[in-house]
Write a structure and sequence with these properties.
- The complex is a heterodimer of chains A (523) and B (255).
- With 523 residues, chain A is mainly α.
- Chain A folds into two domains: 258 residues, no CATH class; 245 residues, no CATH class.
- Chain A has 22 helices and no strands.
- The two termini of chain A are 31 Å apart.
- Chain B has one domain: Rossmann fold.
- Chain B has a six-stranded mixed beta sheet with strand order 6-7-8-3-9-10, sandwiched between helices.
- With 255 residues, chain B is α/β, with parallel strands linked by helices.
- Helix content of chain B is 35%, strand content 24%.
- In chain B, strand 9 and strand 10 form a beta hairpin.
- Chain B has nine helices and ten strands.
- In chain B, helix 3 packs across helix 4.
- Chain B is globular.
- The chains are: A mainly alpha (523), B alpha/beta (255).
- The interface between A and B is large, with 45 and 44 residues.
C-alpha cells in the first residue's frame, strides 16, 4: 500500500510535467536551480569541516533550526506544499491511518525539496568526518532532523485543516502572509545591523537554540565531537521527543481531518446593492472598470501584486547602500509606476474562462481594455503622485519634481499601454480564481519571466525621451528640461495608450474565440 | 436583417476538429423560429462544441451558421445581441454578488443601468434567488450558479436562447420554475435550444429534437417524428448504439 501511494505521487507529478514542453523546460530549470543551491550548501558544509568545531556547531545548529522551522511554518502559510497526494482525496479508500502516515512521509522525503534537504543534511553529517564517532551519530541525527522537518510540514496543515476549510480562511491566510512579507523589509533593515553587531554573540545564541525542539538534534554530533557526551545525550532526547510529538500531533490532526472532511464555508460576504457598479458610469466601459476594481478588492491574486509597493523605498535605499545620501529615493515614483502599470498584463489570464461572458455579450474589445485601465488608474495615479511628491519632499529636490512627474506619468501611461496589448494577446499560466496567489503553475513562471523581460525592455525604450530629459535636469539643474520632460512624458504616454487601447481592443475583437480556447486549456 | 420568419438557426456543413479528432463533422441543422428545440447525444458527441460555434464563442473550421438570417461569424455583434447564452463548463465572475453579476452581463450587452437593475431583481425572484442577490457567487451551490448564469443569459431579452445543460444540479422545484419561464418565452415567439441528457425532460418539454452522435445529426424533427411511436430514450439508444445487455460482472452478484 505504501509503495502504491508513493508511486501514485510520482505518476501524478510526471503526468503534470508531460502535459506541455514548457513544463518540462520549467521543471528542468527548477531542478538546476535547486542543484545550484545544493552545491553551494554542500561546499560550505565540507569547508566547515576544516574550521574549528565551535564554528561548525554554530552554523549547523542555526541552519538546521531554520530548516525545520521553515519546513513547518511556510507550507501552513502558503498551503503551497506538494499536495499531489492530498489526504482529503483519499478519504473514500479504506487505508489504515498509520499506512497513510508512512506513505505521506515517504513521498514527502522523495519530493524535490525533500531530496535537496536530505542531501544537505547528509553533507552536514559529512562535516564531522574527522571525528568518526560524531560522523556516525550525525548520520542518525540528520535522518531524524529531515524526518522531523517533513512531518512538521504536514503537521500544521493537518491540525489547521478544519480552519482551512472554506474560502474565507484561505483569504485570511493570504492576507497574513502578505503582512508577514511586508514585515520582512524592516526586519532585514534593522535585523541586518543587529546581526552584524551580534555576530560575536552567535555561538551563545546557538547554545540556546541547541536546547530548543527545532535545534537540538543538529547539535548532537558537535557535542559528541568535543566530547561533551552529557549534553549530547540531553539534546538527542529533546530532538527525538520533538519528532515524536510532531508525529503524534500530525496523526491526531489527520485523523480528525479525515473524519470531518472539508465543508464549504457557511459564512458569506455580502454586499447590499450594486457596490461599485452603482458608482462607475452605466456603460460597458464603466461596468468593466467596476468589475475589475471589485476584483482588486476581493481577489487575493490582485492584492498579491501590490505587496512589493511599500517595500520599494527600503529596497532602493538598501541597493544604494543605506547612507546619508537619500538621492536614490528619487526613483521610487517611476519604479512604483512601473510595477503598478504592468500588474494587469495577466488580467485576462486571471479572468480564466469567466472571460466567456465578455464574448457572449459581444462587448467591444476597446471597452474591455479601457475599463481595466480605468480601474487600475483610480488608485495607481494617486499612489504614484503621492510617492513622487513625497520622495522629492524627503530628499528636498523640488527642482526635479516636474521631470520626475514626467517620467512617472510616462512610465504609468506607457505601462498601461503595454499591458493593454499583451493581456489580450497572450495567456499566461497563472493561479486560477480561488487558488492560492502564491501557487505557481509548472511552466507558468518561466513564460512569465520571459515576457517580463520583453515588456520591461519595451517600456524602458518607450519612455527614453522623458527619461533623458529628467537626466538633463539632474545634470544641469535647469528646470526647463524638467518641464519639457513632463510634457513629453505625459504626451507620449497618452498617445501610446490611445493607440494601445485600439490595437489591444482590435486584437480582442478578432481573436476572442481563440483566446477562450487557450483559457479553457489553461484550466 | 432580423426576421422572425426565417429559421432561428440555420447550420450548414459545420465542421470543427481538435488536432486529429473531428469533434463536429459536416453538421446540418435547422431550428424553426418559435420552437423549443432539444439537443441530445452521448458524452463527447459534439453538442457543446456545436453550441459554442453557433453562439460565436468558438470559430468553426468550415460551415455556415445564421441566426434569423444573420450570419453569425460575419456579424458577431449583431448575432450576439439576439442570443442569450448559457455555456456549460465556463467559470463565472464569481467574486461578484448575484445582483452584480446580472448587472455586469446586462451592462456589457449595452443596456441601460436602470433597466438592468429592475430586470435583475425580477430575475432573482423568478429563479428563487431573492435571498442570494447580495451573496458572492463563489458561495453559491452548483444549482444556484446554473440559475444565476441563466439569469445572465436572459437579462437582455434575447430572441434566441441557447442553453447548454441548464438543468444540471438544479433542484426539481427550480427546474419546474425555469421550465415555466422558458415555455412562456417560446409561447411569446422566442426560440429555445437546450442540450440535455434527461430524455424524459426533453420529451415532455421540447417540441423538436435532434440526436447528435460523433459530430453529426443522426435524427431530427418534431419529437413525434423522431421517437416514431417509441419513447425518446429507447429511440436514442437505438440510434446511438452502445447499449450492453447482461447482468454485469459475475463477481458483483451477491448470489
Amino acid at each position: 500500500m505504501v509503495a502504491t501511494l508513493v508511486r501514485l505521487r510520482f505518476l501524478l507529478l510526471f503526468n503534470t510535467i508531460k502535459s506541455s514542453p514548457w513544463q518540462i523546460v520549467a521543471t528542468i530549470a527548477g531542478g538546476l536551480y535547486g542543484l545550484g543551491i545544493l552545491m553551494v550548501v554542500v561546499t560550505a558544509l565540507i569547508g566547515l569541516s576544516f574550521a574549528p568545531p565551535e564554528l561548525a556547531r554554530t552554523a549547523i545548529v542555526l541552519g538546521g533550526a531554520a530548516l525545520i522551522l521553515g519546513w513547518t511554518i511556510l507550507p501552513a502559510l502558503t498551503a503551497g506544499i506538494d499536495q499531489t497526494v492530498d489526504p482529503a482525496r483519499l478519504v473514500a479508500f479504506p487505508i489504515p491511518l498509520d499506512t497513510l502516515l508512512v506513505s505521506l512521509t515517504v513521498s514527502g522525503v522523495l519530493g524535490v525539496p525533500g531530496i535537496v534537504t536530505s542531501i544537505a543534511a547528509l553533507a552536514a553529517a559529512a562535516t564531522w568526518w574527522q571525528y568518526p564517532l560524531a560522523a556516525l551519530v550525525a548520520v542518525v541525527c540528520s535522518a531524524i532532523g529531515v524526518l522531523t522537518a517533513v512531518v512538521g510540514s504536514r503537521m500544521l496543515i493537518a491540525l489547521g485543516s478544519r480552519l482551512n476549510a472554506g474560502r474565507r480562511s484561505r483569504e485570511a491566510r493570504s492576507a497574513a502572509l502578505i503582512v508577514a512579507l511586508l514585515l520582512i523589509a524592516p526586519i532585514v533593515m534593522f535585523g541586518g545591523q543587529f546581526i552584524r553587531q551580534l555576530s560575536a554573540d552567535l555561538p551563545r545564541i546557538a547554545d540556546i537554540v541547541a536546547f530548543t525542539p527545532v535545534g537540538a538534534i543538529w547539535a548532537v554530533p558537535a557535542d559528541v565531537a568535543t566530547g561533551d557526551f552529557g549534553r549530547a545525550g540531553i539534546e538527542f532526547l529533546i530532538g527525538l521527543a520533538t519528532f515524536g510529538v510532531f508525529l503524534a500531533l500530525w496523526r491526531f490532526g489527520l485523523a480528525r481531518a479525515l473524519e470531518t472532511p472539508e465543508r464549504s464555508s457557511s459564512i458569506s460576504t455580502s454586499t447590499r446593492g450594486l457596490g461599485l457598479f452603482g458608482v462607475f458610469p452605466g456603460s460597458a466601459t464603466g461596468a468593466v472598470a467596476a468589475r475589475a476594481l471589485t476584483y482588486w478588492v476581493r481577489d487575493p491574486r490582485y492584492a498579491q501584486s501590490l505587496i512589493s509597493i511599500p517595500v520599494i523605498p527600503i529596497v532602493i535605499l538598501f541597493i544604494a547602500g543605506a547612507g546619508e545620501n537619500l538621492a536614490p529615493l528619487n526613483i521610487v515614483g517611476p519604479v512604483v509606476a512601473l510595477l503598478l502599470a504592468l500588474s494587469i498584463y495577466t488580467d485576462v489570464s486571471y479572468d480564466n474562462t469567466a472571460y466567456a461572458l465578455h464574448l457572449q455579450t459581444g462587448v467591444s474589445g476597446r471597452a474591455d481594455r479601457l475599463g481595466r485601465v480605468i480601474a487600475l488608474a483610480t488608485f495607481a495615479v494617486p499612489v504614484c503622485l503621492v510617492a513622487t511628491v513625497a520622495t522629492v519632499w524627503v530628499v528636498d529636490t523640488w527642482y526635479l519634481l516636474p521631470a520626475l512627474l514626467g517620467v512617472t506619468g510616462g512610465v504609468l501611461l506607457t505601462g498601461f499601454a503595454i499591458s493593454s496589448v499583451i493581456s489580450g494577446a497572450v495567456i499566461f499560466g497563472v493561479p486560477a480564481p480561488g487558488e492560492s496567489p502564491f501557487k505557481s503553475k509548472p511552466g507558468g513562471g518561466f513564460s512569465l519571466m520571459v515576457s517580463m523581460l520583453v515588456t520591461w525592455t519595451a517600456l524602458i525604450i518607450l519612455v527614453l525621451p522623458s527619461l533623458a530629459l529628467a537626466l538633463m535636469t539632474w545634470a544641469t539643474g535647469n528646470m526647463a528640461y524638467g518641464w519639457a520632460g513632463l510634457l513629453v512624458g505625459l504626451g507620449l504616454g497618452s498617445v501610446l495608450l490611445v493607440i494601445a487601447v485600439r490595437v489591444g481592443g482590435n486584437v480582442l475583437d478578432r481573436r476572442g474565440p481563440e483566446l477562450l480556447v487557450q483559457l479553457q486549456q489553461q484550466k | 436583417m432580423t426576421t422572425t420568419d426565417s429559421p432561428a438557426f440555420e447550420i450548414r456543413g459545420l465542421t470543427k476538429r481538435f488536432d486529429e479528432k473531428v469533434a463536429v463533422d459536416n453538421l446540418d441543422l435547422t431550428v424553426p423560429s418559435g420552437s423549443f428545440y432539444g439537443l441530445v447525444g452521448p458524452n463527447g458527441a459534439g453538442k457543446t462544441t456545436t453550441l459554442s460555434m453557433a453562439t460565436g464563442l468558438l470559430r468553426p473550421d468550415s460551415g455556415q451558421i445564421s441566426i434569423h438570417g444573420v450570419d453569425v461569424w460575419t456579424n458577431l455583434i449583431a448575432a450576439k445581441s439576439i442570443i442569450g447564452n448559457l455555456s456549460d463548463g465556463v467559470r463565472l465572475f464569481d467574486r461578484l454578488t448575484g445582483l452584480q453579476l446580472i448587472t455586469y452581463a446586462g451592462l456589457l450587452s449595452g443596456m441601460d443601468r436602470d433597466v438592468v437593475v429592475e430586470r435583475a431583481g425580477e430575475l432573482l425572484t423568478l429563479l428563487d434567488l431573492e435571498g442570494a442577490g447580495s451573496t458572492l457567487v463563489i458561495d453559491y451551490s452548483a444549482g444556484m450558479s446554473k440559475k444565476i448564469a441563466l439569469a445572465c443569459a436572459l437579462v437582455h431579452a434575447p430572441l434566441v436562447l441557447v442553453l447548454d445543460e441548464p438543468f444540471e444540479s438544479v433542484d426539481p422545484v427550480s427546474a419546474a420554475n425555469i421550465r415555466d419561464i422558458l415555455e412562456g418565452f417560446v409561447g411569446s415567439g422566442g426560440t429555445v435550444i437546450v442540450s440535455s441528457h434527461a430524455m424524459d425532460l426533453v420529451q415532455r418539454m421540447c417540441d423538436h429534437v435532434a440526436v447528435i452522435a460523433n459530430g453529426r445529426v443522426v435524427a431530427s424533427g418534431t419529437i413525434e417524428e423522431v421517437r416514431a411511436g417509441s419513447t425518446l430514450e429507447d429511440r436514442f439508444v437505438e440510434l446511438v448504439g452502445g447499449r450492453r445487455h447482461g447482468e454485469g460482472p459475475a463477481w458483483l452478484r451477491r448470489s
